[in-house]
Amino acid sequence: MISKLPLLQKELIEYASTKRLFILRVLFGLCLYTIFLVNWSNYTSSDNLYRVLGSGRWLLEYIYIINIIAIFVILPMSSACVITNEKEKRTLSLLLTTQLGPTLILFEKFISLVISIFSFLLISFPAMYLAYLLGGLTNKKILISLYAQFLTVVQVAAVGLFFSCYCKTSIKAIMATYIWGFALYIFFPFFEIFDNVSYYLEIVMFPPAFYYYLDSYASGPWEMFAYTIPIWISAALFLLGARHFLITYPQRMNKKPMAQKVRDDFHIVKRKVPHIRLPILWREGSHSSWPFAAKIFFILGAVIGVGFFGSLPSSRGNRHEFAMIIYFFALAICALFLTMRSVTLFQREIKQETWDVLLTTTMTTRSIFWQKAMAVTRFTLYICILLLCIYTFNLAAFPRSYYSSSRLPSGARWTYAVVFTFLIFTNIQWFMMWLGLTFRKNTKIALVAVGLIAAWCIMPILVSEFAREILGGSRSNYRVLALFSPFAIFIAVTDGRIPGYSNRMYTAMNIGFVIFAVQAVVFYVAASISSQKHIRVCD
Amino acid sequence: MSFVNIKNMTVRYDEFIAVHTMNLQIPPGEVFGFIGPNGAGKSTTMKVLATLLKPQIGKVFLDGIDVLREPKKIRSIIGYMPDAFGVYDDLSVQEYLHFFAAAYRIGWSQRKKLVDDLLALTDLTKKKYSQVDSLSRGMKQRLGIARVLLHDPKFLILDEPASGLDPRARIEMRELLKELRNMGKTIMISSHILSELSELCTRIGIIEAGKIVAEGSLEEIYTQLGVEKIIHTQILNYDDDLQVKIAAIPGVASVQKEQNRVEIHIKEQELKPEELLENLISLKACVRMFQPGAIDLETVFMKLTEGKTA
């Protein structure tokens, strides 16, 4: 049957030969089983046999959450690239002229995505089996967890495919998918202000929530399916949209952008002779960066506005939770933008075929590198200022009573927020610039970069947990490892403490400062050395 | 003294040898046509000259300067236009040239006049304020030429400047290159359109599988290979008897009667066209037209190459 679906066949062959996916699977397996074994060890160490026997329920929940995170991290990347890759290789027009047709192309791509993500999720099945042996859960609960995962895959793949068909490049499609994904899922908690509406919306539009609700609300499989109809409809709508953009791709490909049309038709032209001293910095600043920065301002401004609006009338006294969601959403978006911008800084020139021309000018290698670096540094500065503005809202949303003596006071948190926001984003900038320079010819470097950022946030926390389980002793002894994670640091900055550290927060934060300061220097030196080595062959 | 001097140059991409022990000299002021099948090593050679690639073996000198040791000096005397070059879509034509003028560190005071002059030279003045991405392919190529001329380089490296252009744009490009030739620039140009090169180039080099198989002026190569030259004639009293007499002239390879003319194939190293004309007159041939055919570069190319890649 598969031979009748040539595109699916090709995709599966490509997946099978992609080294990156094997590495990702191994990393996912490591994360999953680390968390599983840590929790297994916690639950089974109890002397109470009844507590041990019922703990399968909690273990299944952990596995479920990890799988859902994996879907949200991995699937947007692969689904957003699936059509844009064809566009970038200029093979999409050829595909559209075959007898496959847009519907079948989308169907085959969609199936290949589902198969590829399930190759990840299958790794968790032995852990689920172990959880089942410990009891505390029903067959129905396991089926619901699988069904909810499947629905999440369908929804995320549909959103990714939609943007893959709409956007011109993989980078844009990835960013749009993540932003929309984030926005879609943080949007619904705002409806908590309208109690009844929120409850219904959360059930019908957020597939991961089915795991918690369907068990009690749906008695049979048909009822279960009925609850999930809105998800299927939304996925179908996204796929229809994707199909529309796929069909109209040949026309859109040859169409000039609207701004261009306006310029030509109405002669809105830039007649001023530019006074350029540092050409690369001028171009990055006055042209490509500004729309980009404008987008950031727009998105984050919208987030602040919605978040602020959403948190103010909250009657439940949990507006600080909204503020925290907003802040972490903004952090994620900014990190994503900065990562993409830094890692593709040199690759964009190579892709646009402007790199060779630039290298044959009389500008020195150092000058090219510094002008590029200055452009990104300016961008980093913008986003740090924006993030600190959002942080201020976040700080104001927390009630004074929230901070006990074991948490950092607001003055200290504000100081650390300023220091760590600049430090961590500087780290990201130089690390990604180094990565982008060293692997500038790797077309998938943007995906690798996003994966590395996710691993950087999660792995230190997991390693600290795992080390404690294996080596024993106090949690605080190993918690220092978690300080390598930017995520842990930002939790401390907002929550006033890192879970596991009780009264030694100042020490922890100072250690964190040293870690990130040293890292920043290392990344900066690595990027500088790499620039001398990789920008020009003859220098 | 040669302007370009390549000695025993070998360029490898891992195991793959793109250019193999190449030796090449180009005198100053020459327009050197670089011909070869796809994958023969033309672009690789040009990239070495443009300081973008480093050969594993050999020496390369431009105007007496070692390309590998002093690439910074080299960059100030070369103008490189790759076969596929992108333009910054978000810039206007004027901004694009000002951007590169700044990159070449041309003083602010000179830039405006320089950009205007180059736009006039490349016939792009009307498009000064247009966005670069709105230009046609031919205009983009001309803009590329304007860019390489910004810092008034002595040596231009043009990789397939006429590829993908329509006939009109190709003619315009050819005229522009002729102007550059008249300005005294040394030019290295690669192209697949052989007839264009034969009109434009003073020397050619034919490369195959990473090796130069022939190099010199067209006449020299033509003579080296013993390629027959075709003389198109119209002889009013042409008959079988006259045909036998013409074919018997030493140096005439063959005589063919076409619809309204006679094609006489001669071996140029033995018989010059003017000598043939004298011979025809002495045979009392009534010659109405006598036109030596342009050197057929395609014949030379086909004779020398087998379509092998490096």
UniProtKB/TrEMBL annotation, chain A:
Which keywords describe this protein according to UniProt? Membrane, Transmembrane, Transmembrane helix
Q: What is this protein called?
A: ABC transporter permease
Annotated membrane-spanning segments are: 21-42, 62-83, 110-134, 146-166, 173-191, 226-246, 292-310, 322-340, 379-402, 414-433, 445-464, 476-493, 505-526
PANTHER family according to UniProt: ABC TRANSPORTER PERMEASE
Automatic annotation (TrEMBL), chain B:
ABC transporter domain boundaries = 4-234
Q: Which Pfam family is one of this chain's hits?
A: ABC_tran
Please, which domain of life does this record's source organism belong to? Bacteria
The family database entries (PROSITE patterns) matched by this protein are listed as: ABC_TRANSPORTER_2
Q: Which residues form a coiled coil?
A: none
One MF term in GO for this entry?
ATP binding
| Assigned keywords, A-Z | ATP-binding, Nucleotide-binding, Transport
Q: Give the family from UniProt.
A: Belongs to the ABC transporter superfamily.
* Protein name from the UniProt record: ABC transporter
Origin organism is Uabimicrobium amorphum
